[in-house]
Amino acid sequence: MLSNNILKCRFKYILVGYYRKYSFSIPEGKTYINGKWVAAKNEKTFPVFNPANGNTIANIPDCGIVETNEAVEAACIALKTWKDVTAKERAAFLRRMFELQMKSSETLAHIITSEGGKPLAESAGEINYGASFFEWFSEEARRIYGDIVPSPFKNKQMLFVREPVGVAGIITPWNFPNAMITRKVAAALAAGCTCVIKPAEDTPLSALAIAQLADEAKVPPGVINVVTSSRSNTPSIGKRLCENPNVATISFTGSTSVGKLLLKHSASTVKKVSLELGGNAPFIVFNSANISKAVAGAMVSKFRNSGQTCVCTNKILVQEGIYEEFIAELAKAMQIQLKVGEGIQPGVTVGPLINESAVKKVERHVQDAVGKGAELVLGGKVHSQGKNFFEPTLLRNLKKNMLICGEETFGPVAAVMKFSSEVEAMELANASRSGLAGYFYSEDISQIWRVSKNLEGEKDLAMVLMNTHTLSIFVLGDWNEFLKSIPVHWASILYWRMAFEINFHKFYVECS
User: Fold this and answer.
1) Fewer CB atoms near the end CB (10 Å): N or C, the chain?
2) Which amino acids are annotated catalytic?
């Protein structure tokens, strides 16, 4: 394991610490375009900070429109040959990237923790999860089948053949800086597309590390390109990717507001757009539920990555018959299981929030709730560890008019509301205008079927979980074993299929 002192140095030294073991290095101040490590044309850089201590860990190229156009052009040129590479060969490239990521897993996990603050056990889990996309799509690349459709004419045969759609613009969030890229990139490469990656400005190092893996795997120049930028240049790069006619598809994971903007920009060129946007996930516990299981589920769903996930529980709805018992058990579990600190430290389960703006949002939500009548059971303020840390917080007596019911908190705040009937629970859960995931606990089989059908989140709720707490993984053992094992979950398969299909168009062939 790297020492804490090394992690506080610049990013290039983090990599040097592993150089002999993994031959893993990324040049300081460079990004990856057309198979080369290059600086921004104006030679400007921006700092990447460790949110746990505020130290600068790297200076990254602050790219703009010029570099974006260069990356798209490189991807267009590479597409001419990459789309004709056989499925077997593309599968081999992806398999090599899987093997390299697993070989370098410890290094990559430290990178995530250093730039994003995630506890190291969670970072290690993300690397395994991210690698599984390379593995799965390396196998799926061989199964790009077409369709034979019955013709209405006796002398004709109708065939539909899947072809790569073109250059994929990939825009990713900071909270899963490895897995959100590998899921999109692996799908694009398997389909025969090339890509331009715009990583989040808070966590670009993981994207550059993936580019290094591609370089080591001998992926041809231009197939994978990374355009890094500061927060001020990010909107113009996103807009250019959407409006560039040489970009065929946009895949974005992030906030709903940004997703709407990207969709608007993409209309001018009528692009295929895939959006995974933020939500306001309800977590419902009925009287019939196993309370111990429900509390364990709430702990993972709420406090994973310090509450900074798009499918994270945002409002907890508990039926009045078990309300007091649930709150008491949840408070006990929080006090025993949650340890706040730098993600690199052993046993830490709650790291820092990504930046000061995130902390201010959490503070605003808590203060609003308390001001409108919520009762503070635990926490409620910035943690003594530092300005980016927030105390694990438990609120009771949540009301519909509180901000936390209408907005994503994205922090370690568990807010609990009481409800009386199943009908009321559905009304409260479905009141949000956005939804991505929903959770509920019940031992009543009839209720399970009813709720799974009626939990809709204004028709936007993509995934419903019954008596379980994670979409992509199963958590084994106690909290300190969190995210060490990653078998494939059915919901992940659906996501992976959606990520794959956006990279194709169906080419119609009529044979006489």
Assistant:
1) C
2) 276
